[in-house]
Amino acid sequence: MSEREPQPGPAIPPPLPTSNSGPSHAHAGGEGAAGAEPAREAPAWPWAVPTGGAPAPAPSVPAGGAGPTGTGSDPHQSAGAGATGQGGTGGASASEPGAEQADGPGSGPGGDPDAGAAPEGPFGPADLRGLRFALFRFDEQPEPAPLTVRALPEGRRLGWEPAAAPAVYRVVTADGTRPYSPDDADELVVTAGTAALDDARPRAAVRYYQVWRYEGADLDAVRTAQPVLHAQGRWIVGVQTPHIAVDVQSVVARWQVLPGTVRVHVHRARPSEASHGLSDPRYRVSTQSPNLTGFADSAAHPGERYVYMVLAEVEADGASVLSEAYTATVDIPIRLQPVTDLSFTLHPGRVPTFDLRWSAPEFGRVEVFRTAQPPAAGLGEEPVPISVLSSQGGLTPEDLLSFPVSAGEDGTQLMAGVTWPHGWTRAYFTPVVFSGDEAFVGTTVHGVSVGMVEDARMNERVGRKLISFAWPEGADVVRLYRTRADGDAAAALQTSPLVEVDHSKYRSNGAIVLDDVVERDGARYFLVSGLFSGGAFVQSEPVELDCPPLMILGYEIAHAADQDGTWRGYVRVHSWGSTEHGGVPFVVVYNRERLPLHSNDGTPLPVYDQAGQPGGRFQPEFLPAKSEVASAPMWSFTMGSYGQSIGYIRVFADVAPEQLRRIALLDPAAVMLDLAGYSQLLAAQAAQAGPHQGGPGA
Fold it and tell me: Where does the SaeA third Fn3-like domain start and stop, copy by copy (predicted)?
């Protein structure tokens, strides 16, 4: 593969083209980069003898580290939990110019005895072992041919084109600095073939390779020949022993780099975008740090899979170049977050409803459980298997609320208009976030609802009101509020309650009793049931009871005997408050057996006005206050012979029943309504003072 030239800033240019017949692809420490083969077949020389004896054995390479680390050729590399990596020492090579490059580990010096086919020349392995060469005189060198380097599990395979004339090839290496003489570099192998294997671990970020050619028809000619730089290339070393893992929801990595590494470039892309992620600066992360020991990335989106590509930037031959990428595939786990801000809003009424609102979590779906008891303590400390909800938490599928959920513009979710369960006073609502086979229990909220007052009735007496109703289920108290006749509930409930009774007191009295309350101008009452929960008073919707204005009237009766002995009664009506307008007709009713109970309970008596005109009933034009009763018009009626009548009389307002409810007509002393009793009273008085004559007030 070709090297990559970094540019200032985050921009990463595309790879440089190679001069080989096709591109090569390699991952750091992976299966080995498949590069383009030289255009011409190498001679069939099967041996290549490393300097100093037999080649060192290649290291044993495991298929991968513990956990999902993927494949790798370096026993020190790993990709961490949740990451699949490819790469070993993270190296890359480059030829001069356009040589193939790849990554791979090495464990020590050595060559490849099987690098080429069987030679046809005069040099055998025994001839080349321990061969000494003439010192290089720094003659001017022709342009060298490209050297290809490919990473294999056992090391880096070098390949070059054969020379036209018989020759021996001396392969040398240098770390960090390009050699200019084969005598000043580390000798890797002497061979008559066209391939070699390097399994030595580099000591710098750039390893240079040179193949020097010693031409000659025999060994003497080879020993004395001046070397010619036949081919050369370099290998760019990437990060060493990389380890990429997920820590909570951040991706963290650590590695080592060799001397000469300027910085490490990190790119993050989704698998579908990884093919162009190296050439697009938008995919580069951790740009503010050189990342020489690793990086931490907290911007990866949970629930996504990413490919991380790591490239080392080094200085080589006066230019900045990049290694091939070490890649690791990482799955960012979803970390469930519980719902902690569930809110409950009750809408009281005959059929109460409520709303539930919460902030939508980033992951998972939210379900709400409604239970009569709170869930088990400690259930929401961490995600749990779904089966734990019912087996240990008291949250069963039957408790799930199935009402639809709508999304709000502020990132919240709303479940609106949920019917309050009939007969429940208290309920617990628990949000649970589900993902896969896990559930995270959120914060439970407590909802309270109390039923409205039903069957409310007001029984009114003069100066007393009795308010009865069916006691609401679950109510601790019932409060009574009063406001003016045209007032509304909102204004009334802002005031202090007129009365508050608990169930015990209500049962004892049988009603709410209001004494000494006269509504001459009318009033409106509101009954509110409620209960105490968590230090707050939860109340129902108010129930209205109207109390129209009450007209309180009274009347006075007097008796007198006419000259002919006729017993005549006198009546006048007054108001107990201020002077009232007239317009109310009255009737005097006689019942021989008992005190009349209503206007039809007896016989209406003829009534005479002050002019002596008879009528069935009388209707004053005005009703003066009691203190001014002497100014009230007087009406009369007859009852037969004076002192001989028996029975009872009583005055009634002669109006329709619905109007009668708003008129209270107070009776005088009972003796004034009992004709026989009054006759006895008059007889006793007559024995002492003589006959009594005159009307009321006489």
Answer: 352-445
